[in-house]
Structures are given as structure tokens and as C-alpha cells.
Predict the structure.
Amino acid sequence: MLTIQRPAIDPRLDLFAEIERLKRELNAVILAHYYQDPDIQDVADYIGDSLGLSRQAAATDARVIVFAGVHFMAETAKILNPTKQVLLPDLAAGCSLSDNCPSDRFAEFLRAYPGHIVISYINCSAAVKALSDIICTSANAVAIVNQIPKDQPIVFAPDRNLGRYVMAQSGREMVLWPGTCIVHETFSERKLIALKVRHPDAEVIAHPECEPAVLRHADFVGSTTALLKYAGTSDRRAFIVVTEAGILHQMQKAHPDKLFIPAPPEADCACNECPFMRLNTLEKLYLCMRDRTPEVTLDEATRLRALTPIERMLAMSPK
Ligand code: 13P
Ligand code: SF4
């Protein structure tokens, strides 16, 4: 296999200043998810959850979108912006939910549920989006399901934990694809209870990708943006945060007077950091802007079929 050698980064370079210079030179916008490394969050033009990032991608007039997140997010930006160049610092930045729901197996799964509306979590490939009727994110999943007529059966994919949470909130039965997030499924109910005992005044705030056994201890459940906002509006001084640890950077920055305690995974590991998100580094971000590669591309037929359910989501999302 041919490997392309990239010129090494000059160690004297100030990467923060270089990235700012390249932003102007390329007419680029950097969109970053909260799970990115703090250095990346600090150079981003916009930091948000998957819904906010999609909205920004749909609205930007920059010529180049540098997506500091995982592949399905950059791909969504490309679906919305076919004429713009979309760069991703590391093309291998996948997602366990997306990777474990291949479109051929999903198409076969759907054949068993004729007449069902297909609602897919945005954490899926363009090919799976193309098989879906409506896309949702953790921020709008309940609101979207609530807009579906009561007698309409629903298939929900690929996150069964988000699906179960939506079923509990909406009172709707749904057929679930059995996918999970490898980060959120590692949080330990046992260790969370022990942490609550040590911090009795702390509120537990959790992402709906967590297992039901963990979510039942949460005082508030929401997307990453919703968790950040809640930490600001609550009058509590301490929070146990049950999601990927990258969000703590913005929480601590916005509320330096409050205490944010990352929830522990079951094993003694750094499994509360997403190994896909963390493939992106400041160095790779700089290189992808300098060399304008790797780039996310898509065939036009798939893009067009994936666009419709994303546009439906944007139209159905509460403002
Ligand atoms: P949100 O961005 O909707 O909070 O979801 C988190 C996530 O896991 C993204 O992959
Ligand atoms: Fe996917 Fe989970 Fe990583 Fe989000 S945190 S990108 S859902 S593996």
C-alpha cells in the first residue's frame, strides 16, 4: 500500500496562531463537539452537541468546514453542504453506534417491519440515513417521536439506550436496533451510588446514551448542550457528570465556582473518554487544514437520499 509521507510539523510553530491564520486563508470554520480535546475546543468557532453542530453546518457561509468530531458528524455536514470542502482531522474517527449498524444489515432488519416509520439517531452512516425517514439527535428525539401519530409503528436505531429512554418519556413502544455507545455503556451504577454517598449534595446529570440502570439515578437527563445549560441554571454547587469527560472543559470554564465530578466507568480505565473522538489532536487539526486532507466525500445518490430525513429533523426540532 502506498503511504503518503507528510512533511513533519516544525516544532517552533505556534499551532494556535497557525490554525487562526489558516482559518482566514481558507475561509474555514472549525466546528467542534464537546467531546474533543480541550485544546481543540479552544480553537473552535463553534462548540456544540450534534443538533447544534448540524444547525451550524446548515447555516455556515464559510468555504471550508473543518469538523472536529467523528465521521458521521462530518458526513452530516457534507450532506448539508455538497459544494463545500469538509475536512476531518482523522478519517478513522468512527463511532461504535454507527460502525455496528452497517447499511446492508439494517436494510435486512427493516424488511421484518413493513409499515414502520424509521427514526434514526444521527450517530449512523449516510447509507443508514438514506434508509431512514427522520433523523434525530439526543436533543430532539423525544420531541420528534411525540410528533408521530399514535397509531404509527416506529423502528428506532441504532442506540437502544436512547430508544429505551425515548420510550419511557413518550410512552410509545418502538422496535429497537440493538446498538450501544461503548463509552456510555461503561458507566457503573455501583460506583455512581458510591460517589453519590460521598457527594450527597451533588446532582447527577447524565446523557441518554447511558444504560437505564444508570439513568434511574439521574436528576437531569439531556444532550451535551442540555447538560451544560442545566449546570448553569441549577442552583446546586456540585454535579456528577455521566457522559464523555470532554464536556467538563466547557462546564468548568463557564462555571469556575462549581464542582464537576466525572462519573466513573466500571473498570479502572479512561473509558469515559471516547477513543474515536480522541483520535483528533491539535496537530492533526493543523495538518488537515495545512494539507486540505483528509476530506469527507459522498456519492450524490446517497447524499440526496440522506438529506431528506435530516431536513425533516431540522424542520421538526423545537427551536
Ligand atoms: P449529543 O451531541 O447529542 O449530546 O450526543 C453525544 C454523542 O455521543 C455524540 O456522539
Ligand atoms: Fe459514538 Fe459514543 Fe463516541 Fe459518541 S461517545 S461518538 S456515541 S462512541
Q: What stands out?
A: Residues 35, 70, 95-97, 123, 181-183, 209, 244, 274, 276-277 surround iron/sulfur cluster (ligand 2) (CB under 6 Å). Residues 97-182+303-316 form a domain with the Rossmann fold fold (CATH 3.40.50.10800).
